[in-house]
From TrEMBL:
The chain crosses the membrane at residues 7-27. The keyword Transmembrane helix applies. PANTHER family: KDEL LYS-ASP-GLU-LEU CONTAINING - RELATED, PROTEIN O-GLUCOSYLTRANSFERASE 1. This is Glycosyl transferase CAP10 domain-containing protein. Keywords: Membrane, Transferase, Transmembrane, Transmembrane helix. InterPro entries: CAP10, O-Glucosyltr/Glycosyltrsf_90. Belongs to the glycosyltransferase 90 family. It comes from Volvox africanus. Residues 145-379 form the Glycosyl transferase CAP10 domain. GO terms for molecular function: transferase activity. It holds the Pfam family Glyco_transf_90. The keyword Transcription regulation does not apply.
Length: 480
C-alpha cells in the first residue's frame, strides 16, 4: 500500500468512526419520537369510545365512530418475523394506563361485566368453606382449588397449595392487579382446571353459563402469557392488516387442531364418533371447496381411530390463519383457549355455539363480534359459503370498503384492542375480585395462620414495561 493510500484509508476509517455513532443516535431519536407519537394515538383510544348493547347472553360491542389505527412503517425484517413477534419487540412505554388507580373497578358500559360470572345472591361462608375442602372423584377436567386472602392489598396463599405453574401465573397476575387497583381485604378461591365447577363459589378460567350458579371467571394463563401493551397491540393490528390484506385471502375457512374433547379423554373405536372435533374433521370432507378443516394431532387415540383419520393436515401457526377468508373455532377440553388470541386478528371468526365461557367471551356477540354456527354443524356450510363469498367480493373491490365479514372482524379487533391489553386483562381480574367481595357475606379473619405471603418477582410469565415490573416487585417486598 502506498503512503497516500494509507493516509486515505486512515482518514476514511476515522470519518466512519466519527459519523456512525451520531447517525445511530439520530435514527434512534427519530424512531423514539415516532414511538411516542404512536403511543399517544394508542392512548387516545379507550373504552369511552365503545358502545355496549345487551343481546341475550352477550353484549354487542362496537366502536362509536372511527377505529384506532396508526400508519406505521414496519421494520425491514418484517417479512421474516411474525407480527406478534414484531409487536412484542417494541418497548411498551409506561404510559398513564399503567398508573395505579385510586377508584374501585366498575363494570363496563350498560353494566356489562368485565369478566363473566353468574351467581345467585350472596356467597355464604359455609359454601365457601365446603368448596375450599372439595375433592374431585370422577371429574375429567377438574383440578385443585387454592385458597387466597388479600389483607392490606397484599396477597397470601394457603401454605398447603401445590404451587404449580398455573397457580404461579395467576399469582403473578394478581400481584399486578393488587398494585394497580384498590382491592379490599377479602378471601377467595381459584380453581386450576379446565372443567366447569358450577355450584361452587370459585373463580375459574371458564364457566358453564347455562347454570345460574355457574361461578366466576379469571383470565386464563394463556391470555396473560400472550398479553401485550396498548401500543404493542396497535402495532400488531397494523402489521396484520399490512401482511394479510383482504385482496389476498384464500377462499376457504381454516381450522387446525388436535382431537381434544370436552367429554372424552381417550379416543377408541367405540366412542370416537362422539368426539366433536373428530366429527367436524369428517364432516368437512364433504365440503373441501370451502372448509379446510383438519385434525393435525392425535391425542390418546387408538390405532383404529388413527386409521379413520388418515387425511390429517399439516400444522399452521395461528397467525397464518389470517391468510384465509375466515377462521373456525371450536371447543377443546372445554372453552376454546385460542379464542383469546384469535380475537386480535383481522379475520372473521366462525365459532361453534357453546356454553363454555371464558372471562371475555360475552363481549363478542354473534353477528357483531363473531359469526356463530350450530353444534350439529347444520348451518356451517351455508355460513362458511356466505363468508367466503363476502371475502371474494372484498377481493374484487380491492379490499377497500369491506363487507359484513370484515365489519364483524373489525368490531372484534377494536373490542379486544381496547379491553384486552395487559391492563384491561388485569382490570377484568380486579373486577371479578370486587364482585366476589361484594357478594361475600362474612368479615375476613385477619389471622395469617396457614397462609404465606406471595412475593414472586414481576414478571416472568409475561412481558410488561420494565418500570411496571420493578414497581410491582417492590410493592410486594421484592428488590427488583
Ligand atoms: C378516554 O379518552 C377520552 C378522550 O378520548 C378522555 O377524555 C377520557 O378521560 C379517557 N378515559 C379514560 C378512562 O382514560
Ligand atoms: C383412508 O381411509 C379410508 C377408510 O377410512 C380408505 O378408504 C382410504 O383408502 C384411506 N386412504 C389412504 C391414503 O390410506
Ligand atoms: C347449553 O345449555 C343448555 C341448557 O342445558 C342446552 O339446552 C344447550 O343445548 C346447551 N348449548 C350447547 C351449545 O351445548
Ligand atoms: C360493589 O358494590 C358497590 C356498592 O354496592 C358498587 O358500587 C360496585 O359497583 C360493586 N362493584 C362491582 C364490580 O360490581
Ligand atoms: C348479602 O350480604 C350483605 C352483607 O354482606 C347484605 O347487606 C345483603 O343484604 C345480602 N344480600 C342478599 C341477597 O342476601
Ligand atoms: C419472599 O420470598 C422469599 C423466598 O423467595 C422469602 O425468603 C422472603 O422471606 C419473602 N419475603 C416476604 C416479605 O415474605
Amino acid at each position: 500500500m502506498t503512503f497516500r493510500r494509507r493516509v486515505f484509508c486512515f482518514y476514511a476509517f476515522l470519518i466512519i468512526c466519527i459519523c456512525i455513532p451520531p447517525c445511530f443516535f439520530f435514527l434512534n431519536t427519530l424512531l423514539k419520537l415516532a414511538h411516542q407519537q404512536h403511543s399517544l394515538d394508542a392512548l387516545a383510544w379507550n373504552e369511552s369510545r365503545l358502545q355496549f348493547k345487551s343481546v341475550g347472553n352477550y353484549f354487542a360491542v362496537t366502536p362509536k365512530n372511527g377505529t384506532p389505527g396508526v400508519n406505521y412503517r414496519l421494520p425491514f425484517s418484517f417479512k421474516y418475523r411474525s407480527c406478534e413477534n414484531i409487536a412484542r419487540s417494541f418497548e411498551e412505554p409506561l404510559s398513564a394506563r399503567y398508573h395505579p388507580r385510586p377508584a374501585a373497578v366498575s363494570p363496563l358500559g350498560e353494566n356489562a361485566p368485565r369478566a363473566y360470572w353468574r351467581w345467585p345472591g350472596n356467597i355464604s361462608k359455609e359454601s365457601f368453606e365446603s368448596a375450599a375442602a372439595r375433592e374431585w372423584p370422577g371429574c375429567l377436567h377438574c383440578m385443585n382449588i387454592v385458597r387466597y386472602k388479600v389483607l392490606g392489598r397484599k396477597l397470601y396463599v394457603a401454605e398447603s397449595a401445590p404451587g404449580r405453574r398455573h397457580q404461579n401465573v395467576a399469582e403473578e397476575m394478581l400481584q399486578v392487579v393488587l398494585y394497580l387497583f384498590p382491592i379490599p381485604d377479602m378471601e377467595f378461591l381459584l380453581h386450576f382446571g379446565d372443567g366447569c365447577v358450577n355450584g361452587l363459589p370459585v373463580i375459574s378460567w371458564n364457566v358453564c353459563r347455562q347454570f345460574a350458579d355457574a361461578g366466576f371467571t379469571m383470565p386464563s394463563y394463556t391470555v396473560w402469557e400472550r398479553s401485550m401493551g396498548p401500543m404493542q397491540l396497535m402495532l400488531y393490528s397494523t402489521c396484520l392488516e399490512k401482511r394479510y390484506p383482504a385482496r389476498k385471502r384464500k377462499p376457504l375457512v381454516i381450522w387446525r387442531g388436535s382431537t381434544t374433547d370436552t367429554q372424552l379423554d381417550k379416543f377408541t373405536k367405540d366412542n370416537y364418533l362422539q368426539a366433536i372435533r373428530i366429527r367436524l374433521h369428517q364432516f368437512a370432507r364433504k365440503y373441501r371447496n370451502i372448509l379446510d378443516i383438519r385434525i393435525v394431532q392425535f391425542f390418546k387415540c387408538d390405532d383404529f381411530v388413527k386409521e379413520q383419520l388418515n387425511d390429517t393436515g399439516s400444522w399452521i401457526a395461528f397467525e397464518r390463519f389470517n391468510k384465509f377468508c375466515a377462521i373456525l373455532d371450536i371447543d377443546g377440553n372445554s372453552w376454546s383457549d385460542r379464542f383469546g388470541q384469535l380475537v386480535h386478528f383481522n379475520t372473521p371468526i366462525l365459532k361453534m355455539e357453546s356454553n363454555y365461557t371464558g372471562y371475555f367471551e360475552h363481549l363478542f356477540a354473534p353477528d357483531t363480534g363473531i359469526i356463530q354456527f350450530a353444534k350439529d354443524f347444520s348451518d356451517l356450510p351455508e355460513k362458511a359459503r356466505q363468508l367466503v363469498a363476502d371475502c371474494q367480493q372484498d377481493r374484487r373491490r380491492g379490499g377497500t370498503a369491506g363487507g359484513r365479514g370484515r365489519r364483524i372482524a373489525k368490531n372484534m379487533q377494536v373490542a379486544s384492542q381496547t379491553l384486552m391489553d395487559q391492563v384491561g386483562i388485569a382490570e377484568a381480574f380486579a373486577y371479578t375480585l370486587q364482585v366476589y367481595k361484594n357478594l361475600s357475606s362474612w368479615e375476613v379473619d385477619p389471622s395469617l395462620k396457614g397462609f404465606k405471603e406471595v412475593n414472586l418477582t414481576c414478571c416472568s410469565f409475561t412481558q410488561v414495561p420494565k418500570l411496571l415490573a420493578a414497581a410491582v416487585s417492590e410493592y410486594h417486598g421484592r428488590t427488583p
